[in-house]
Amino acid sequence: MTDHVLSVEEMRAAERAAMDSGVSEWQLMQRAGGGAADWIWRIAAGRAVTVLCGPGNNGGDGYVIAETLQRRGLTVTVVAPVEPASETARRARDGFSGEIAKTLVSSSGEVLVDCLFGYGLSRKVEGEFAKLLELACPSHSIRIAIDVPSGIFADSGEWLGASHRYDHTLALGAWKRAHFLMPARADMGNTRLVPIGLDLKDPAERLSERPRIHPPEPDSQKYTRGLVAVVAGEMPGAPLLSSLAAMHAGAGYVKLFSDHSHPDAPAELVIEDGALGEALDDERIGAVLIGPGLGRGSEARDRLRAALNSGHNLVLDADALHLLDRAMLDGADPAKMVVTPHDGELAKLCETFDITATDKRDRAIGLRDATGLTVLAKGPDTLLAPAQGGVVYFPQGSSWLSVAGSGDVLAGMIAARLAVTGDAVGATQEAVWLHQEASRLAGPSFTAGQLADAVRAALALFL
Ligand SMILES: NC(=O)C1=CN([C@@H]2O[C@H](COP(=O)(O)OP(=O)(O)OC[C@H]3O[C@@H](n4cnc5c(N)ncnc54)[C@H](OP(=O)(O)O)[C@@H]3O)[C@@H](O)[C@H]2O)[C@@H](O)CC1
Ligand SMILES: [K+]
């Protein structure tokens, strides 16, 4: 239940279903406001609180929060520029026993609780509401957004109006897409979910669950444990990095198909040169990775074609994403493939496959639907569009991952997990989690090589 990620429409439907089953809107608001107040009370730790209340039910939650905190002994100031517009919000306002100001008086409190607008935001935040946020956000040292920061469109994560930074965001009832999408995510601070007892079923979109990685079976040998083939091309460095990451991510055997000499490669990495088609004929190969350092010339194209026609599970990254088109996919099995574009590569793929969507989620879905590929759209708001449908989001990773070679490491790990499990969607999620955990273990300002080294210790945390 805590892993559902809902659209505004789905959220409204879930609340309607709760009401149909006999829970009133007032009860839902009590649960939402009361649950949020518990978090705020702890965060505030005795400091004075300012609550901004808007016209809708987000504002209604604000009155419930204000009353709960005041009863617990905190100094609470409520600022509401307009009257409540819904009956339930009016009831909540009437239940608040303190004073209500129309505008913010200076130094009202140290903790700001923003309940101006939630998922009901329908247009740009302007006028008195915009001015209030402009005044209140910088003048409070701790800023807490209730459900979503006011001004964020919950379905897309875009700001409708000026952006403001929050220290905490308390999602009510279920996660919304904005909690995992940029630019919203960067401004939300710590995110927490406040359950309100909604009965949610079969989520189309969900948060990735922390995976459990299984050790090799007792009767494993190096081939059955997962043989990864990394196909190199023009540049030697990137595929070597991918190979190292694959070696640490649980593969039994990693081969690098490369015509370069790799003096820095560890002795355990098997490097083979010569005809790629023949090398890929090995039935024991569990997954092929191609793209890092591949190049974009005619030879690179030939190598990509050989990989696509090999019939193996396949991870396509970097240059391979620039070369991929409909003709190349002809005859290949997209169900066995994962593509891992960052924003620029995703835009290029959308151009290639005539997808007109402009935001990341819709582009990833569009590409998946047009090709049948599993699409991992990388970045600070990495999301996965599995071939089977739906969308999977991930908890926020370290911003130190924004380093050259980080994608090569991730691609190597996906190939390793895919070779081990044969499950493209599961393998990709495992690799994203490993990537994030490895970044934490590598500490700040690591290089991609150090990140690849940390993968082994990261893997131990998922056993
Ligand atoms: N329903 C439930 O069971 C539960 C709901 N819960 C809570 O309710 C929240 C959703 O409530 P909501 O639907 O009332 O929307 P909300 O975000 O408060 O705002 C809508 C109001 O704002 C107005 N408005 C919009 N944009 C505007 C703008 N730019 N500038 C000015 N005005 C603007 C809009 O006016 P209108 O567009 O109708 O003209 C309308 O009056 C949700 O996030 C959660 O906190 C929880 O308590 C759990 C139970
Ligand atoms: K809000």
TrEMBL record:
Q: Name one GO molecular function term.
A: NAD(P)HX epimerase activity
List residues binding (6S)-NADPHX.
Answer: 57-61, 118-124, 147, 238, 293, 342, 408
Name the Pfam families for this protein: Carb_kinase (PF01256), YjeF_N (PF03853)
Q: Which residues bind K(+)?
A: N58, D114, S150
Q: Where is the YjeF N-terminal domain?
A: 11-204
Q: What's noted on cofactor binding?
A: Binds 1 potassium ion per subunit.
Q: Which domain of life is it from?
A: Bacteria
Note whether Nucleotide-binding occurs among the keywords.
Answer: yes
The UniProt catalytic activity note for this protein reads: (6S)-NADPHX + ADP = AMP + phosphate + NADPH + H(+); (6R)-NADPHX = (6S)-NADPHX; (6S)-NADHX + ADP = AMP + phosphate + NADH + H(+); (6R)-NADHX = (6S)-NADHX
* YjeF C-terminal domain span: 205-462
**Required cofactors, per record?**
Mg(2+); K(+)
Its EC number(s) = 4.2.1.136, 5.1.99.6
| Keywords, alphabetical | ATP-binding, Isomerase, Lyase, Metal-binding, Multifunctional enzyme, NAD, NADP, Nucleotide-binding, Potassium
What does the entry list as the binding residues for AMP?
K378, G379, P380, D381, T382, G407
> Briefly, what is this protein's role?
Catalyzes the epimerization of the S- and R-forms of NAD(P)HX, a damaged form of NAD(P)H that is a result of enzymatic or heat-dependent hydration. This is a prerequisite for the S-specific NAD(P)H-hydrate dehydratase to allow the repair of both epimers of NAD(P)HX. Catalyzes the dehydration of the S-form of NAD(P)HX at the expense of ADP, which is converted to AMP. Together with NAD(P)HX epimerase, which catalyzes the epimerization of the S- and R-forms, the enzyme allows the repair of both epimers of NAD(P)HX, a damaged form of NAD(P)H that is a result of enzymatic or heat-dependent hydration.
Self-association or partners: how does it assemble?
Homotetramer.
Family statement: In the C-terminal section; belongs to the NnrD/CARKD family.
- What protein am I looking at? Bifunctional NAD(P)H-hydrate repair enzyme
Organism of derivation? Qipengyuania spongiae
> What's the source species' lineage?
Bacteria, Pseudomonadati, Pseudomonadota, Alphaproteobacteria, Sphingomonadales
Q: Which gene encodes it?
A: nnrD
